[in-house]
Amino acid sequence: MGLSYLVYPGAHHTRFHHALGCMHIMQKAIEVLRFKGITISNDESNALLIAILLHDIGHGPFSHAMEHSIVENVNHEDISMLFMNKLNEDFDGKLSLAIQIFKGEYPRKFMLQLISSQLDMDRMDYLKRDSFYTGVAEGTINSDRLIQMMSVVDDTLVIEEKGIYSVEKFLMARRLMYWQAYLHKTSLVAELILTKILKRAKELTLKGVDLTCSESLKYFMINKIEADTFDHFTLEKFSQLDDYDIVSALKSWQNHDDFILSSLSKMIINRDLLKIKLSSEKFSKEELSQYLDTFSQQNGISQHEATYFIFKGKIKNQAYSIDAEPIRILKKDKTIEDVIVASDQLNLKALSKPVTKYYICFPKQLVEKY
Fold first, then answer.
1. Which among 142, 144, 145, 136 is positioned nearest to 176, based on CA atoms?
2. 244: number of Cβ within 10 Å
3. Could you tell me the pTM of the whole model?
4. C-beta neighbour count of 183 within 10 angstroms
5. Which residues contact 292 (CB under 8 A, 6 or more apart)?
6. Pairing of strands 355-362, 328-330
Protein backbone atom coordinates (compact mmCIF):
# COMPACT_ATOMS: atom_id res chain seq x y z
CA MET A 1 0.00 0.00 0.00
CA GLY A 2 3.04 2.30 0.00
CA LEU A 3 2.08 5.64 1.58
CA SER A 4 -1.68 5.02 1.39
CA TYR A 5 -1.94 5.39 5.18
CA LEU A 6 -1.73 9.16 4.54
CA VAL A 7 -5.19 8.83 2.93
CA TYR A 8 -6.56 5.78 4.75
CA PRO A 9 -5.27 5.84 8.37
CA GLY A 10 -6.10 2.15 8.81
CA ALA A 11 -3.84 1.02 5.97
CA HIS A 12 -0.88 0.14 8.18
CA HIS A 13 -0.92 -3.57 7.37
CA THR A 14 2.30 -4.97 5.94
CA ARG A 15 3.46 -7.18 3.11
CA PHE A 16 4.24 -9.80 5.76
CA HIS A 17 0.51 -9.96 6.61
CA HIS A 18 -0.22 -10.34 2.92
CA ALA A 19 2.36 -13.14 2.39
CA LEU A 20 0.88 -15.16 5.28
CA GLY A 21 -2.64 -14.56 3.95
CA CYS A 22 -1.65 -15.75 0.48
CA MET A 23 -0.18 -18.93 1.95
CA HIS A 24 -3.36 -19.52 3.95
CA ILE A 25 -5.64 -19.30 0.92
CA MET A 26 -3.20 -21.37 -1.15
CA GLN A 27 -3.69 -24.13 1.45
CA LYS A 28 -7.46 -23.83 0.93
CA ALA A 29 -7.07 -24.00 -2.87
CA ILE A 30 -4.91 -27.13 -2.65
CA GLU A 31 -7.52 -28.79 -0.38
CA VAL A 32 -10.36 -27.93 -2.81
CA LEU A 33 -8.47 -29.19 -5.87
CA ARG A 34 -7.46 -32.44 -4.13
CA PHE A 35 -11.09 -32.94 -3.06
CA LYS A 36 -12.09 -32.63 -6.75
CA GLY A 37 -9.65 -35.40 -7.70
CA ILE A 38 -6.70 -33.33 -8.93
CA THR A 39 -3.48 -35.04 -7.88
CA ILE A 40 -1.11 -32.75 -6.03
CA SER A 41 1.81 -34.48 -4.30
CA ASN A 42 3.14 -33.37 -0.91
CA ASP A 43 6.28 -32.03 -2.61
CA GLU A 44 4.15 -30.01 -5.06
CA SER A 45 1.96 -28.75 -2.21
CA ASN A 46 5.02 -27.59 -0.22
CA ALA A 47 6.50 -25.97 -3.33
CA LEU A 48 3.26 -24.02 -3.96
CA LEU A 49 3.19 -22.79 -0.36
CA ILE A 50 6.88 -21.74 -0.49
CA ALA A 51 6.44 -19.97 -3.84
CA ILE A 52 3.39 -17.97 -2.72
CA LEU A 53 4.96 -17.14 0.66
CA LEU A 54 8.03 -15.71 -1.08
CA HIS A 55 6.38 -14.26 -4.20
CA ASP A 56 6.80 -10.64 -2.98
CA ILE A 57 9.99 -10.94 -0.92
CA GLY A 58 11.89 -8.68 -3.35
CA HIS A 59 9.80 -5.59 -2.53
CA GLY A 60 11.74 -2.83 -0.82
CA PRO A 61 10.48 -0.29 1.75
CA PHE A 62 7.20 1.42 0.86
CA SER A 63 6.60 -1.09 -1.89
CA HIS A 64 6.39 0.24 -5.47
CA ALA A 65 7.49 3.74 -4.44
CA MET A 66 11.00 2.36 -4.01
CA GLU A 67 11.16 0.11 -7.05
CA HIS A 68 13.58 2.19 -9.14
CA SER A 69 14.75 4.68 -6.50
CA ILE A 70 17.46 2.88 -4.57
CA VAL A 71 18.41 0.34 -7.25
CA GLU A 72 18.68 1.03 -10.97
CA ASN A 73 16.55 -0.96 -13.45
CA VAL A 74 16.06 -3.94 -11.12
CA ASN A 75 12.42 -4.78 -10.43
CA HIS A 76 11.07 -6.56 -7.37
CA GLU A 77 10.48 -9.81 -9.29
CA ASP A 78 14.20 -10.01 -10.07
CA ILE A 79 15.10 -9.39 -6.43
CA SER A 80 12.54 -12.00 -5.29
CA MET A 81 14.30 -14.49 -7.56
CA LEU A 82 17.69 -13.59 -6.06
CA PHE A 83 16.32 -14.13 -2.55
CA MET A 84 14.77 -17.48 -3.50
CA ASN A 85 18.01 -18.70 -5.10
CA LYS A 86 20.01 -17.67 -2.01
CA LEU A 87 17.52 -19.38 0.31
CA ASN A 88 17.71 -22.46 -1.89
CA GLU A 89 21.46 -22.56 -1.29
CA ASP A 90 20.95 -22.15 2.47
CA PHE A 91 18.32 -24.91 2.57
CA ASP A 92 20.28 -27.42 0.43
CA GLY A 93 18.05 -27.25 -2.65
CA LYS A 94 14.69 -27.63 -0.87
CA LEU A 95 13.27 -24.66 -2.79
CA SER A 96 14.17 -26.03 -6.24
CA LEU A 97 10.64 -27.15 -7.13
CA ALA A 98 9.13 -23.89 -5.81
CA ILE A 99 11.55 -21.91 -8.01
CA GLN A 100 10.74 -24.09 -11.01
CA ILE A 101 6.99 -23.41 -10.55
CA PHE A 102 7.62 -19.69 -9.86
CA LYS A 103 9.59 -19.32 -13.11
CA GLY A 104 6.91 -21.16 -15.14
CA GLU A 105 9.26 -24.05 -15.95
CA TYR A 106 7.19 -26.77 -14.31
CA PRO A 107 5.02 -28.74 -16.78
CA ARG A 108 1.85 -28.49 -14.64
CA LYS A 109 0.78 -25.05 -15.82
CA PHE A 110 -2.07 -24.55 -13.34
CA MET A 111 0.43 -24.31 -10.48
CA LEU A 112 1.94 -21.10 -11.85
CA GLN A 113 -1.61 -19.79 -12.43
CA LEU A 114 -2.34 -20.21 -8.71
CA ILE A 115 0.71 -18.03 -7.94
CA SER A 116 0.66 -15.53 -10.80
CA SER A 117 -2.30 -14.98 -13.14
CA GLN A 118 -5.34 -12.73 -13.48
CA LEU A 119 -7.10 -14.74 -10.75
CA ASP A 120 -4.34 -15.87 -8.39
CA MET A 121 -3.98 -16.22 -4.62
CA ASP A 122 -1.98 -12.97 -4.53
CA ARG A 123 -4.83 -10.83 -5.94
CA MET A 124 -7.46 -12.66 -3.90
CA ASP A 125 -5.64 -11.85 -0.69
CA TYR A 126 -4.65 -8.25 -1.34
CA LEU A 127 -8.08 -7.16 -2.59
CA LYS A 128 -9.85 -8.52 0.47
CA ARG A 129 -7.12 -7.38 2.89
CA ASP A 130 -6.67 -3.89 1.46
CA SER A 131 -10.40 -3.18 1.23
CA PHE A 132 -10.78 -4.28 4.87
CA TYR A 133 -7.97 -2.08 6.21
CA THR A 134 -8.78 0.98 4.07
CA GLY A 135 -12.53 0.69 4.56
CA VAL A 136 -13.11 0.82 0.78
CA ALA A 137 -16.05 -1.59 0.79
CA GLU A 138 -16.17 -1.81 -3.02
CA GLY A 139 -13.01 -3.94 -2.93
CA THR A 140 -14.62 -6.74 -0.92
CA ILE A 141 -14.60 -10.09 -2.72
CA ASN A 142 -15.79 -13.60 -1.86
CA SER A 143 -12.46 -15.44 -2.02
CA ASP A 144 -13.94 -18.57 -0.38
CA ARG A 145 -16.52 -18.87 -3.15
CA LEU A 146 -13.90 -18.31 -5.88
CA ILE A 147 -11.66 -21.02 -4.41
CA GLN A 148 -14.60 -23.46 -4.08
CA MET A 149 -15.36 -22.95 -7.78
CA MET A 150 -11.79 -23.73 -8.93
CA SER A 151 -10.93 -26.81 -10.90
CA VAL A 152 -8.25 -28.02 -13.30
CA VAL A 153 -8.78 -29.24 -16.89
CA ASP A 154 -5.78 -30.39 -18.99
CA ASP A 155 -3.42 -28.91 -16.36
CA THR A 156 -5.08 -25.49 -16.75
CA LEU A 157 -6.90 -23.62 -13.99
CA VAL A 158 -10.62 -23.05 -14.65
CA ILE A 159 -13.58 -21.64 -12.72
CA GLU A 160 -16.84 -23.60 -12.82
CA GLU A 161 -19.64 -21.70 -14.56
CA LYS A 162 -21.73 -21.26 -11.41
CA GLY A 163 -18.87 -19.13 -10.01
CA ILE A 164 -18.95 -16.62 -12.90
CA TYR A 165 -20.72 -13.90 -10.86
CA SER A 166 -18.01 -14.10 -8.20
CA VAL A 167 -15.40 -13.63 -10.96
CA GLU A 168 -17.29 -10.61 -12.30
CA LYS A 169 -17.44 -9.13 -8.78
CA PHE A 170 -13.69 -9.82 -8.36
CA LEU A 171 -12.79 -7.95 -11.57
CA MET A 172 -15.05 -5.02 -10.73
CA ALA A 173 -13.58 -4.86 -7.21
CA ARG A 174 -10.07 -4.79 -8.66
CA ARG A 175 -10.92 -1.85 -10.92
CA LEU A 176 -12.51 0.12 -8.08
CA MET A 177 -9.65 -0.59 -5.66
CA TYR A 178 -7.11 0.70 -8.17
CA TRP A 179 -8.83 4.02 -8.67
CA GLN A 180 -10.01 4.49 -5.06
CA ALA A 181 -6.98 3.16 -3.18
CA TYR A 182 -3.85 2.10 -5.09
CA LEU A 183 -3.95 5.01 -7.55
CA HIS A 184 -5.68 7.49 -5.26
CA LYS A 185 -4.24 10.87 -6.20
CA THR A 186 -2.94 11.67 -2.70
CA SER A 187 -1.24 8.25 -2.35
CA LEU A 188 0.18 8.79 -5.83
CA VAL A 189 1.65 12.23 -5.11
CA ALA A 190 3.12 11.01 -1.80
CA GLU A 191 4.88 8.13 -3.58
CA LEU A 192 6.16 10.48 -6.28
CA ILE A 193 7.54 12.85 -3.62
CA LEU A 194 9.29 9.95 -1.87
CA THR A 195 10.87 8.92 -5.19
CA LYS A 196 12.08 12.50 -5.72
CA ILE A 197 13.53 12.62 -2.17
CA LEU A 198 15.59 9.49 -2.76
CA LYS A 199 16.71 10.76 -6.15
CA ARG A 200 17.87 14.03 -4.55
CA ALA A 201 19.55 12.20 -1.66
CA LYS A 202 21.46 10.04 -4.11
CA GLU A 203 22.42 13.09 -6.19
CA LEU A 204 23.80 14.87 -3.11
CA THR A 205 25.62 11.77 -1.84
CA LEU A 206 27.35 11.29 -5.19
CA LYS A 207 28.54 14.94 -4.94
CA GLY A 208 30.19 14.10 -1.61
CA VAL A 209 27.49 15.41 0.77
CA ASP A 210 27.28 13.20 3.87
CA LEU A 211 23.64 12.47 4.71
CA THR A 212 22.49 10.95 8.00
CA CYS A 213 20.80 7.61 7.43
CA SER A 214 21.08 3.93 8.39
CA GLU A 215 24.11 1.97 7.25
CA SER A 216 21.99 -0.17 4.92
CA LEU A 217 20.36 2.82 3.24
CA LYS A 218 23.72 4.60 2.94
CA TYR A 219 25.08 1.59 1.03
CA PHE A 220 22.42 2.15 -1.66
CA MET A 221 22.98 5.90 -1.62
CA ILE A 222 26.72 5.69 -2.36
CA ASN A 223 26.66 2.73 -4.76
CA LYS A 224 25.01 2.45 -8.16
CA ILE A 225 23.30 -0.93 -7.94
CA GLU A 226 22.19 -2.62 -11.17
CA ALA A 227 21.19 -6.18 -12.03
CA ASP A 228 24.77 -7.31 -12.78
CA THR A 229 26.15 -5.84 -9.52
CA PHE A 230 23.39 -7.22 -7.26
CA ASP A 231 25.57 -9.78 -5.46
CA HIS A 232 25.05 -11.67 -2.16
CA PHE A 233 26.48 -8.78 -0.11
CA THR A 234 24.04 -6.33 -1.75
CA LEU A 235 21.18 -8.78 -1.16
CA GLU A 236 22.08 -8.93 2.54
CA LYS A 237 22.08 -5.11 2.72
CA PHE A 238 18.75 -4.96 0.86
CA SER A 239 17.21 -7.45 3.30
CA GLN A 240 18.05 -5.10 6.20
CA LEU A 241 16.03 -2.23 4.70
CA ASP A 242 12.48 -1.52 5.79
CA ASP A 243 10.08 1.42 6.15
CA TYR A 244 11.80 2.56 9.37
CA ASP A 245 15.07 3.25 7.52
CA ILE A 246 13.24 5.61 5.19
CA VAL A 247 11.10 7.37 7.82
CA SER A 248 14.08 7.94 10.14
CA ALA A 249 16.07 9.33 7.18
CA LEU A 250 13.22 11.72 6.31
CA LYS A 251 13.04 12.92 9.92
CA SER A 252 16.73 13.75 9.76
CA TRP A 253 16.74 15.17 6.23
CA GLN A 254 13.88 17.62 6.96
CA ASN A 255 16.46 19.69 8.86
CA HIS A 256 19.14 19.52 6.15
CA ASP A 257 20.39 22.76 4.63
CA ASP A 258 19.61 21.56 1.08
CA PHE A 259 16.36 23.34 0.16
CA ILE A 260 15.06 20.51 -2.03
CA LEU A 261 15.81 17.63 0.33
CA SER A 262 14.48 19.39 3.43
CA SER A 263 11.33 20.78 1.75
CA LEU A 264 10.32 17.45 0.23
CA SER A 265 11.08 15.52 3.45
CA LYS A 266 8.92 17.94 5.45
CA MET A 267 6.04 17.33 3.04
CA ILE A 268 5.90 13.62 3.92
CA ILE A 269 6.60 14.05 7.65
CA ASN A 270 4.02 16.87 8.03
CA ARG A 271 1.49 15.36 5.59
CA ASP A 272 1.57 18.62 3.64
CA LEU A 273 2.01 17.36 0.10
CA LEU A 274 2.26 18.89 -3.36
CA LYS A 275 -0.97 19.71 -5.16
CA ILE A 276 -1.88 17.12 -7.81
CA LYS A 277 -4.37 17.57 -10.66
CA LEU A 278 -5.72 14.61 -12.65
CA SER A 279 -7.19 14.78 -16.14
CA SER A 280 -8.13 12.52 -19.01
CA GLU A 281 -6.25 14.98 -21.26
CA LYS A 282 -2.48 15.61 -21.30
CA PHE A 283 -1.25 18.71 -19.49
CA SER A 284 0.49 21.18 -21.77
CA LYS A 285 4.22 21.96 -21.70
CA GLU A 286 3.25 25.63 -21.41
CA GLU A 287 1.42 25.04 -18.12
CA LEU A 288 4.42 23.10 -16.77
CA SER A 289 6.85 25.84 -17.89
CA GLN A 290 4.71 28.53 -16.28
CA TYR A 291 4.80 26.75 -12.91
CA LEU A 292 8.56 26.07 -13.22
CA ASP A 293 9.37 29.71 -14.06
CA THR A 294 7.31 31.12 -11.20
CA PHE A 295 8.54 28.67 -8.57
CA SER A 296 12.22 28.93 -9.51
CA GLN A 297 12.02 32.76 -9.37
CA GLN A 298 10.15 32.74 -6.04
CA ASN A 299 12.71 30.47 -4.36
CA GLY A 300 15.91 31.47 -6.14
CA ILE A 301 16.54 27.99 -7.54
CA SER A 302 17.36 26.71 -11.04
CA GLN A 303 14.79 25.27 -13.47
CA HIS A 304 16.37 21.82 -12.95
CA GLU A 305 15.94 22.11 -9.17
CA ALA A 306 12.33 23.25 -9.62
CA THR A 307 11.57 19.98 -11.46
CA TYR A 308 11.77 18.21 -8.08
CA PHE A 309 8.59 20.09 -7.13
CA ILE A 310 6.85 20.47 -10.49
CA PHE A 311 6.41 17.53 -12.87
CA LYS A 312 3.83 15.64 -14.89
CA GLY A 313 3.19 12.06 -15.93
CA LYS A 314 0.48 9.46 -16.44
CA ILE A 315 -1.06 6.44 -14.73
CA LYS A 316 -2.77 3.51 -16.40
CA ASN A 317 -5.06 0.78 -15.14
CA GLN A 318 -6.59 -2.23 -16.83
CA ALA A 319 -8.71 -4.49 -14.63
CA TYR A 320 -8.59 -7.39 -17.09
CA SER A 321 -6.12 -7.88 -19.92
CA ILE A 322 -7.24 -9.74 -23.03
CA ASP A 323 -3.56 -10.18 -24.01
CA ALA A 324 -2.58 -11.99 -20.79
CA GLU A 325 -3.50 -15.50 -19.63
CA PRO A 326 -7.35 -15.43 -19.59
CA ILE A 327 -9.63 -16.39 -16.73
CA ARG A 328 -11.23 -19.54 -18.10
CA ILE A 329 -14.82 -20.52 -17.34
CA LEU A 330 -15.74 -24.23 -17.44
CA LYS A 331 -19.27 -24.39 -18.82
CA LYS A 332 -21.83 -27.08 -18.01
CA ASP A 333 -21.30 -28.70 -21.44
CA LYS A 334 -17.56 -29.03 -20.55
CA THR A 335 -16.46 -26.37 -23.05
CA ILE A 336 -14.12 -23.63 -21.81
CA GLU A 337 -14.52 -19.91 -22.55
CA ASP A 338 -12.73 -16.70 -21.63
CA VAL A 339 -14.76 -14.95 -18.90
CA ILE A 340 -15.25 -11.94 -21.23
CA VAL A 341 -17.05 -14.21 -23.72
CA ALA A 342 -18.90 -16.30 -21.12
CA SER A 343 -20.18 -13.30 -19.12
CA ASP A 344 -23.48 -11.56 -19.88
CA GLN A 345 -22.18 -8.52 -17.99
CA LEU A 346 -21.55 -5.71 -20.50
CA ASN A 347 -19.39 -3.82 -17.99
CA LEU A 348 -16.86 -6.65 -18.09
CA LYS A 349 -15.92 -5.91 -21.70
CA ALA A 350 -15.26 -2.29 -20.72
CA LEU A 351 -12.91 -3.50 -17.96
CA SER A 352 -10.56 -4.94 -20.58
CA LYS A 353 -9.89 -1.48 -22.04
CA PRO A 354 -6.92 0.35 -20.48
CA VAL A 355 -7.84 3.64 -18.78
CA THR A 356 -5.12 6.32 -18.79
CA LYS A 357 -5.14 9.44 -16.62
CA TYR A 358 -2.63 12.28 -16.74
CA TYR A 359 -1.35 14.19 -13.73
CA ILE A 360 0.57 17.36 -12.94
CA CYS A 361 2.11 18.08 -9.50
CA PHE A 362 3.13 21.49 -8.16
CA PRO A 363 3.45 23.36 -4.82
CA LYS A 364 0.16 24.56 -3.32
CA GLN A 365 1.24 28.20 -3.20
CA LEU A 366 1.10 28.30 -7.00
CA VAL A 367 -2.65 27.53 -7.00
CA GLU A 368 -3.49 31.12 -6.16
CA LYS A 369 -1.53 32.34 -9.19
CA TYR A 370 -3.07 30.02 -11.82
1. 136
2. 10
3. 0.92
4. 18
5. 303, 306, 307, 310
6. unpaired
